[in-house]
Amino acid sequence: MRNPYAPGAGQRPPELAGRDRELQQFEVVLERVARGRPERSMVVTGLRGVGKTVLLNTFKSMAMQRLWGTGKIEARPDQSIRRPVAAALHMAIRELAPRHRAPERIEEFLGVLKAFAMRDPSAAKGTSHWSPGIEVPASRGRADSGDLEIDLTELFVDAASVATDLAVGIALFIDEMQDVPASDVSALCAACHELSQSGGPLIVVGAGLPHLPSVLSASKSYSERLFRYARIDKLDREAADLALILPAREEEVEFTREALDALYEAADGYPYFVQAYGKVAWDLAPRTPITLDDVKVSAPEAEEELAVGFFGSRYERATPAERDYMHAMAQIGDEPVATAEVAEALGRKPSSLSPARDSLIKKGLIYSAERGLIAFTVPHFGRFLRAQPV
Ligand SMILES: Nc1ncnc2c1ncn2[C@@H]1O[C@H](COP(=O)(O)OP(=O)(O)OP(=O)(O)O)[C@@H](O)[C@H]1O
Ligand SMILES: [Mg+2]
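A: This is the predicted complex of the input protein with adenosine-5'-triphosphate.
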C-alpha cells in the first residue's frame, strides 16, 4: 500500500531526480519573461518514457506558483491546434480573472478568444455544435481572420496584455509537439516570433520526441533562436539511485548496495524503467532492506509488465508491414540505422519502404535521428523486438 513508485505515462514520480539543470533554466526563463527581458522559450525533447510530460507538468506548477496563467495541450497528428489552444488559453485566463481589477478587460479578451475558437474550420460548417463554453459574445475583427498565423499572433498579444495588467505572464504548454500539423507549426513559430519581438509575457513551452527541433526548423528557419532546446536523457547512476532511495526513505525502507547495482543494470537509468523495476522489487521484498535477491526475483515480473504496458501497447499500433520494418531495424542494431540498410535487409527498394517508415514516424515509434538514419523512440525497443517471435 505504501509503495511510492509510479510507472505510467505522465505519472508524477515520488522524486523528480536528475532534472535540476532544466528546472533552474526554466526558473530563469520565467523570471526574465516576467521582467520583459528578451528570452527564448524552452522545448524539452527526449525518448519515450524519459520524463518529458512530468517535466512539463513541473514547469507548469512553477509558473502557477508565480501566479502566472497556464494552459496545456497535447498535440495530435492531423488535428489543428486552434481549438485546443483556445481551450488552454481559456484556462489560463480563468486563473488570472479573479485577481484582475477590470472585469471588462477579461470580457474583451474572452470575446476575442471565442471569435478565434469559432474560426475552427470544422466548427464553422455548422455540423458540429461545439461551443467553447465562453459566455460573452464573440467579438469581430480580431483573431478571427481564419489565417492561423495572424489569429494566433493577435490572440497571444491580447492574452499577454491581460497578463501584463497583473504583472505576471502566461505559459502555454504543448506536449507531443512533434505531432502539431506542419502548417500549424509554422503559424505557432511565427506567433512566438512576433511576441518575442514585442516582449509580451507569454511563452510557449514544448515537449516532444528527439526530432522535434528539426520539425521546428524545417518550418521556420529562425526557430532555433526562438527556443532553447533541452534534451533530456536517461538518469545517471546517482540520480537513478536517488529516484529509488529518497521515496523509500520516507517510508523507512532501504536498499542494499547490490540491489541498487542490479536495479541500475536492469533499468539502465531510464525513468520509466526505474519506476517499473522499483515498484515490483518493493512489492516482492518481504522486508527492508530490499536486497539483490529481491531484485532478481522481481525482475521477470517487471519485465513482463513492461512487455505488455510499455512495449506491447506501442507494438500493437503497428501494421504487419510496419512490424517487419521494425524487426529489420532491430536486427541491425541498437544505434540509429541507415534506411538503406533496412531496405537491404528486407530485400526491398528503399522507395517502396517509405510508406511504412513515414507511418512509423507519424505513430511516434521511430524518428529520423539525422538525414538517412532512423532510430526507435522507445528505449530498449530493439531488445524487446528481438525477443519477440517473428
Ligand atoms: N526525473 C525523474 N525521476 C524519476 N522518475 C521519473 C523522472 N521523470 C519521469 N519519471 C517517471 O518516468 C515515467 C515516464 O514519465 P513521462 O510520462 O513524463 O515520460 P515521457 O517522456 O513524457 O514519455 P512519452 O514520450 O511516452 O510521453 C513516469 O512513471 C514518471 O513517474
Ligand atoms: Mg509524455
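Strands lie at 41-45, 69-74, 170-175, 202-208, 227-231, 337-338, 366-370, 373-376. The longest helix spans residues 292-315.
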